[in-house]
Amino acid sequence: MGLPTLEFSDSFVDSPDFRERLKCHEIELDRTNTFIKELITDGHQLICALKNLSAAVQKFSQSLQEFQFECIGDAETDDEVNIAQSFKEFSQLLNTMEEERRRLIQNADDVLITPLERFRKEQIGAAKEGKKKFDKEAEKYYSSLEKHLNLSSRKKESALQEADAQIDKERQLFYDASLEYVFKIQEVQEKKKFEFVEPLLAFLQGLFTFYHEGYELAHEFEPYKQQLQYNLQNTRNNFLSTKQEVEKLMNRVRSADQDQKPPGQWTMEGYLYVQEKRPLGCAWIQHYCTYEKGSNTFSMCNTEAKPTNGVMSNPTEKFRLKSCIRRKTDSIDKRFCFDIEVVERHGIITLQALSESNRRLWLEAMDGKEPVSPEANFSYLNEAGFNFVRKLLISFYLIVGGINSKVQKLMTTVFSPKAASDMDLDSDTWDNKTITSGLKNYLRCLSEPLMTYKLHSDFLLAVKSDDQNYRVCAVHALVHKLPDKNKEMLEILIKHLLNVSTHSENNMMTVSNLGVIFGPTLMRSQEETVAAMMNIKFQNIVVEILIENFEKASESKDNTQHTPVRNNAFILYPYMSILTNVQKFWDSKGQHLFEIENFCNNVKVFTHIRKSFLILIHRDAKAIYSCEAEHSHELSFPKGAHFSNVYPSVEPGWLQATFEGKTGLVPENYVVFF
C-alpha cells in the first residue's frame, strides 16, 4: 500500500486520522533519511571496494601476463596454443578496462555521494525543520486555545475581542505551519522519485560505460577466444535453459499452493451516528454498525454507553432491513444522513454517515434509494424529462442564472404527476433564466450522471491519451456503451450544443466554453476529492470531443432509405483506419463493439440538427444574501459581494466562484448573475 494522500483541508481539521496519516509520511521520511545515510556509507564502501578491486584486477592481470602454460609432451595442440595466447590478450584487455574503472572511481563522489548528501540535508532537512515549526505552533495554539476557552464570559467585551483576535492570529500561524509542512513533506516524497534516483542513474551510467567498453573490446579478442567462448557458451546455454524450466515449475507450484484471500465478513461496516429523540430535542449517538446483505441483517452497537455498576452494557441490536433512503439535505440540519426502516421497530431510523462517500457506500450496500417527492420526481430519465428537454431546446434561449425558488417551482410544475405530457412552457410564465437553470438542474439532479458512474473512469482514460485520433474513437465507442435512454438524451443535448457553438462569434459559446459548462454536469464524479476535481478539465474535454465530432445529418429520403440510423444512435465520423485500430483495442480487452463494414454503412447517415437557441454565460455574479462558510472549501461573504469566474460546481446546488482572491464554493441560490 502507498502513502495516504494529505489533503490541505485536513490541516484545518487536524483530526486524529490526519495526524495518523501525517505520521505515516514522517515514518517514511525517517526511513528514507536513514536509507540515504546508509546508502552513502555503502557508497563510500563501494568506492573503496572498487579501488581495492581495481588493484586486485591489475594484480590478476599481471599474473595472467606472467603465466606460462606447460603441457605434457613435446608439442602443443592448436587449442592449447589458443588458450595460452588468450591469457596474454585477456591481460591486455583487463588493463584497458581498468583505465575506464579508474575514471568511474574518480567521478563516483561527484555523481553519487554529493547529490545524495545534498538531497538529505536540503530537502529532508527542510521537511524536518517544517515539522519542528508545525509541532511548535501546534503546541502554542492548543495551549492558547485552552486558556482562551477558559476565559470568563463576564470579562469586558473589548478584552474578549482582543482575546478572539489573538487566538485567531495564533490559529492562522498554526494553519500556515500545518499547510507548509503538509506541502513540504509531500513535496519531498515526490521529489525523491527523481532527485534520489538521478544520482544512482548517473552512477549506473558510469558502470554501463565501463561495461560497454568491455563489450567493444571483446570483439577484438574473438580470434583468440572463439573456441573457449564456444565451450563456455554451450555450458551457459544449458544452464540458462535449465534454470528457466526450474523457475517455471517453482512458480507453478507456488501459484497452486497460494490461498485466495477470503472475503470480508460483512457487506458493509463502520461507525454511524444514530438520531435518538429526547424530551428537549434529539441527540446523535455513535454506534458501530454492520450490514450483511445475504441475510438482510443490520446491527448496531452503542459505543458511547456508560458502565452500570462498573459493568459495560452495550448489547448489539439486530434488525431485518426493510428499506433504505437517502435523506435530503434540506429536510434535516445534518449532512450525510439516510433513513432506514426495519421489521422489528416502528418508524424511521435516521443515521448519519461520516462523509458523502461513506454514505454512498452504505446506500450501495443496502440498495438505498433516492428520496422521491410526492409532488414531483425529476431524478430519472423518463418521458417527462425527455419532453421537458425537447421543449426547452425548441422554444427557449439558454441564459445562465435563474433564481432558485423559481427554478424549483418550474421543476415541481413540470414533473408533477398531474402535469400534462404536452405542457407548454410559454415565455410569459417562465423567463429564459429560469428555463436554463431548470435544464441544468434536471441534468444535475439525475440519480446518476447522464454519462454514468460506470463509464466515468473509462471516459477519463480515453481523453488522457496523447493520440488525438484515439481519443475520438475511444469516446465514440464508450458513448455506444451508454444505456439507450442516456444515449438518446445525450444526442438531443449535444445536437443543440453543436448548433450553439456555430454561433460562437455572437454568443461567445465556443466549444471550450460549452465543455466548461456541461462537463461537470454530464460527467460528475462519484468521489468528491481534490483528485476528482483535478479531473474536471478532462470531463470538459469529453464534452468538447462530443460536440466537435457530432456531424450534421441529412434527412434526404434516399439516404435514409438505404442507410438508416440504428437506435437513434450517436454518430461520430472517425476514419476507417482509426475505426480498425479502436476495434482492435477493444477486442484485445474482450469487448467486441461493432463490425467495421456495417458501421461505415451507417456512418454515412447523420441526424438533422434541430432548431436551437443561444446560451449566454455570465462569469460575474453578486450575492443577494450573506453567508458564513462551514467548511474550508466554501466561501464566506457579505450581502452584495461581487464574484468573478463563476461556473457550475460538481456538487449539486453549488457554484465555484472567486471572491477577494480566494476560490471556493458558494450556494447557487445565494447569488444572481449580472
TrEMBL record:
Entry GO terms, CC: cytoplasm
Residues of the PH domain: 265-371
UniProt entry keywords in alphabetical sequence: Coiled coil, GTPase activation, SH3 domain
Coiled coil keyword on record: yes
Single annotated GO MF: GTPase activator activity
Alphabetical list of Pfam families matching this protein: BAR_3, PH, RhoGAP, SH3_9
Boundaries of every Rho-GAP domain copy: 349-554
Entry coiled-coil feature ranges: 87-114
Superkingdom of this protein's organism: Eukaryota
SMART domains on file: PH, RhoGAP, SH3
GO BP: any one term: signal transduction
Domain SH3 as annotated: residue spans: 616-674
Name under which the protein is recorded: Rho GTPase activating protein 42b
